């Protein structure tokens, strides 16, 4: 009985499949053949599409007119030029000359290296003149965005490369000793002291602190992040400043007119001012007696633990508090000393303000 039922079921399945094939108008063999034809047709269309698909060739580089932005800059007034690039035309030309003088290459003569690079570059559609590179770098230092550099006819992808290589060349062209002109002879020290004396006498009627040559302080240069190669074995946290940002510490000292005579940036942002200063060559000059004992610098209270007569620092809050509790006259004298010292020390703060205002990249 079971065998008969199985035969019936198998027959019914065949009848259903036959009915489906008949419903689509195909028998079983014809349906398989139809499917194969459709697959072959689809594969054929795919190969035809591939063959007919247009091939994209790399676009040829179009020569840019690099002289046009230079010609536009040359047409600017001297005032506009100085406002854009933060220096006069004569200083700019002198900087270009010094950069050509030490231009890198296989020859010892920088000018020859520059001429060789210029001749090779003139045959290239992507050649960028040195003057144009310096324009871009100075605008970036002034605070402009890299997006603004399209005006100079360069690719945005190349702006940061131009900026870094040009800065390295500037650093090589202008050694620190040529920039800051730190006093080295007795006549230089006396000249610096005379500048402070003339300003103080004009303001106060007398020379309050005879022997002042420099005013100094520390400055934090904020940075977005620290590269791994810049850690030099230090922890990342050592670059975080007490103000809550990553940074680098500057030790700077200026004369009576706010001109930097010593400027060094060599420490991570977590370093305090006195630790950084004690690692400078300027501190060693005082310790070794290279700077005559009759001359001194004015500093803030962060340097008060150095002591000695060549580092004038204001009285600290704790010292003022103790004096006020025990001797009011002494307290008033100490306050007057701090006030007079601050009138000279504020010069370095003004110098920092002029520096940051001039170069917007520090904002």
Describe the model.
- By secondary structure, this protein is of the alpha/beta class.
- The protein contains 14 helices and five strands.
- Strands 3-2-1-4-5 form a five-stranded mixed beta sheet.
- A hairpin with a 5-residue loop joins strand 2 (247-254) and strand 3 (260-268).
- Helix 5 packs across helix 8.
Structural class: alpha/beta
Largest sheet: 5 strands, mixed
Assign a percent range to the helix content: 40-55%
Radius of gyration: 38 Å
Averaged pLDDT: 84
Question: Are there runs of 5+ residues with pLDDT below 50, and where?
Answer: 1-26
Number of H/I helices: 14
Q: Would you count the extended β strands for me?
A: 5
Q: Report the principal-axis shape.
A: elongated
In spatial order, strands of the major sheet run: 3-2-1-4-5
Please state roughly what percent of the residues sit in beta strands, choosing from under 5%, 5-15%, 15-25%, 25-35%, 35-45% or over 45%: 5-15%
Q: SSE order, as H and E?
A: HHHHHHHHHHEEEHHEEHH
N-end to C-end Cα span: 98 Å
């Amino acid at each position: 009985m079971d065998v008969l039922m199985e035969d019936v079921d198998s027959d019914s399945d065949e009848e259903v499949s036959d009915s489906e094939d008949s419903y689509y108008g195909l028998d079983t063999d014809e349906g398989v053949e139809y499917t194969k034809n459709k697959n072959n047709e689809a594969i054929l269309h795919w190969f035809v599409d591939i063959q007919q698909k247009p091939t994209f060739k790399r676009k040829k580089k179009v020569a840019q007119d690099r002289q046009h932005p230079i010609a536009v800059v040359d047409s600017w007034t001297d005032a506009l030029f100085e406002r854009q690039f933060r220096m006069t035309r004569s200083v700019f030309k002198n900087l270009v000359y010094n950069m050509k003088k030490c231009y890198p290459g296989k020859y010892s003569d920088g000018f020859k290296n520059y001429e060789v690079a210029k001749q090779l570059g003139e045959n290239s559609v992507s050649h960028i003149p040195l003057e144009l590179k310096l324009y871009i770098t100075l605008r970036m230092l002034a605070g402009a965005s890299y997006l603004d550099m399209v005006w100079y006819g360069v690719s945005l992808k190349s702006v940061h490369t131009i900026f870094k290589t040009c800065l390295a060349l500037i650093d090589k062209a202008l050694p620190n000793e040529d920039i800051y002109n730190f006093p080295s002879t007795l006549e230089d020290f006396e000249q610096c002291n005379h500048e402070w004396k003339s300003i103080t006498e004009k303001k106060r009627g007398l020379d309050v602190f005879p022997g002042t040559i420099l005013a100094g302080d520390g400055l934090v240069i904020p940075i977005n992040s620290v590269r791994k190669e810049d850690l030099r074995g230090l922890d990342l946290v050592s670059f975080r400043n007490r103000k809550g940002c990553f940074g680098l510490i500057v030790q700077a000292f200026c004369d009576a007119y706010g001109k930097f005579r010593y400027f060094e940036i060599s420490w991570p942002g977590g370093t305090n001012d006195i630790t950084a200063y004690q690692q400078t060559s300027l501190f060693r000059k005082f310790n070794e007696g290279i700077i005559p004992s009759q001359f001194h610098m004015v500093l803030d209270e962060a340097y008060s633990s150095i002591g000695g007569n060549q580092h004038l620092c204001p009285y600290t809050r704790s010292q003022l508090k103790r004096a006020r509790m025990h001797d009011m006259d002494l307290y008033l004298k100490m306050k007057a000393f701090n006030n007079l010292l601050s009138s000279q020390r504020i010069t370095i703060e003004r110098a920092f303000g002029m520096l940051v205002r001039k170069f917007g990249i520090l904002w």
